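WARN no homologs supplied; continuing
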Amino acid sequence: MWGIGRRYAAKLNALGVNTAYDFAQHHKDWVRVTFNNINIVRTWQELNGEDVVPNEELAKKKSICTSRSFNGMICDFDTLSTHIANYATRCAEKLRKQDTVASIVGVFLSTNPFREDLLQYWNFQEARLITPSNSTIPIVQAATEVLRQIFREGYQYKRGGVIVNGISPSMPLQQDLFDVDAGKIQKLRRLDAVIDKINKINGTETIVIAAQQYTKERGRGKADVFANAMKQDHKSKNPTTRWSDIIRLK
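OK structure emitted
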């Protein structure tokens, strides 16, 4: 039973309460005085038909952050920009998944604090979207512009991330008088919906925007994707979804 651990179960048994039905038959005041614990009271309320546990709709995130440690040190803006574009894309996907939009896009960068032999730098800035959005393209564009403001030459960066704030329901959407027209917003929504559907059916990164692709050897060679550019030294194996990771018994 939710909220009842071994300690509370032993106390309930000592009081003659052995089943969820027995517990639900007691008075609410008895539960409150006996246990003096709000979670136990909520469990009693749930058993008596009162909805007090927040559901998924009410528990939507108020801020979303996507960040990673880079696979090695990064010094150039182009590679950093690609990482930030991928982080921003994932924030946008999470916003769409919970049917919300964000009005603030923040970006942070940091060097490796454990490398005392290197110059150290950390910075974080934000940009406000004129019209709140959950579309990939405007969020990536905003994140890239913030990155331009905080990027400094001469540092070896180890970590970066994107944070979206000012989250609100996607409908109704309050559009700014001086922002893009409603028709463009609808086009972006349809584009995101198609990309999300294709990626859900065929796998993540089946379709990406150009800003998300890594180019090997300064423009020479085949473009790479985010899944291959992340640091994954300690990633768990996938024995149920990948042939190479199937557990073998000797």
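The domain at 64-229 is CATH 3.30.1490.100 (Dna Ligase; domain 1).
OK
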